[in-house]
TrEMBL record:
UniProt keyword list: DNA-binding
Signal sequence, renumbered to the chain: none
This protein's name: Helix-turn-helix transcriptional regulator
Superkingdom, natural source: Bacteria
Location of the HTH cro/C1-type domain: 42-85
Entry-linked Pfam families: HTH_3
Keyword flag Nucleotide-binding: no
Matches recorded under InterPro entries: Cro/C1-type_HTH, Lambda_DNA-bd_dom_sf, TransReg_Diox_bact_type
PROSITE patterns from the UniProt entry: HTH_CROC1
Phylogenetic classification of the source organism: Bacteria, Pseudomonadati, Bacteroidota, Cytophagia, Cytophagales
């Protein structure tokens, strides 16, 4: 069992669990976390638009199974496809921030 007594902040917890920034474990964790966020945003936007996965797929020119994979964090997505799904399928603009 891990000893969390010296962990005081969220950043320390992430480092304790997944390693330092740049490590293979940390990179994998951060990629998964980002995909989770995108998948939840997609799901929430689709539901707010009162669309089924099939309807969204049709509007965005993709397949229902692809939308399902994305919403479940299982798919890998190209930026151009993400933009098309949000802009054509959901009438939403995407803004990117690089840190």
């Amino acid at each position: 069992m891990k000893d969390y007594r010296d962990v005081k902040t969220f950043d320390e917890l992430i480092e304790f669990e997944h390693g330092k920034i740049g490590s293979a474990s940390r990179i994998k964790y951060e990629e998964s976390a980002q995909m989770f966020i995108v998948s939840e945003m997609l799901k929430a936007a689709r539901k707010a638009a009162n669309l089924t996965q099939e309807q969204l797929a049709e509007k965005a020119g993709t397949k229902k199974s692809y939308i399902s994979k994305l919403e479940n964090g299982k798919g890998n997505i190209q930026l151009s496809t993400l933009i098309r799904i949000f802009e054509q399928g959901l009438n939403k603009k995407i803004g990117l921030t690089f840190l």
